[in-house]
């Protein structure tokens, strides 16, 4: 599906309002992508977080749709705002975007949103993504983020969706070996789960002022 600038659908303000606002010289989208706000040592963490919480509560569904229909920076930011505010009505939209994998970087934010929603339906979306993309050992997309989110959901829900992926010499091991030959690092499931936990606990621990 071709992307459309938000201005084309009557929401030309949303990129400046929600995506490119700067913190420490970096636009919000790059701060979200890099994750530096998850560490308390960053000087701008409190300001960044309060603005993120306020915007997640204030942005309208229509503004979010405008961002989700544009490029990766806008989609990444929208997915974080959706996840922080737990707008579960966007589940199907987020799931479709994750499976389509049309643009770079934003997929990890979709995984965060699904992990934050925290239901069986979200686990099924993540499992469907892994079923589709783990066999592609020539592609490095958002498989690590998806597995981390699924492992977190299994722990929260008491389910075992991830077991069939992480069994010895299973789809996960085969994918790691495949992308390893392309020069990517060896991803460890427990580390992917830890990163999903850090993201979700960040959202859980902060309350709106």
Task: Describe the fold and architecture.
- Helix content is 62%, strand content 2%.
- The protein is mainly α and 209 residues long.
- The chain has a single domain (6-205), classed as Leucine-rich Repeat Variant, CATH 1.25.10.
- Strands 1-2 form a two-stranded antiparallel ribbon.
- α6 runs parallel beside α8, α7 packs antiparallel against α8 and α8 (120-133) runs antiparallel to α9.
- The termini are far apart.
Compact overview of the structure:
With 209 residues, the chain is mainly alpha-helical. The protein has twelve helices and two strands; from the N terminus they run αββααααααααααα. The protein has a two-stranded antiparallel ribbon with strand order 1-2.
What is the string of helix and strand elements? HEEHHHHHHHHHHH
Which structural class should the secondary elements be placed in? Answer: mainly alpha
List the uncertain runs. Answer: none
What is the CATH domain class? Mainly Alpha
User: Architecture, CATH level 2?
Assistant: Alpha Horseshoe
- N- and C-termini, Cα separation: 38 Å
Q: Kindly estimate the percentage of residues that lie in beta strands according to DSSP.
A: under 5%
Put simply, the count of helices is 12
What's the number of extended β-strand segments?
2
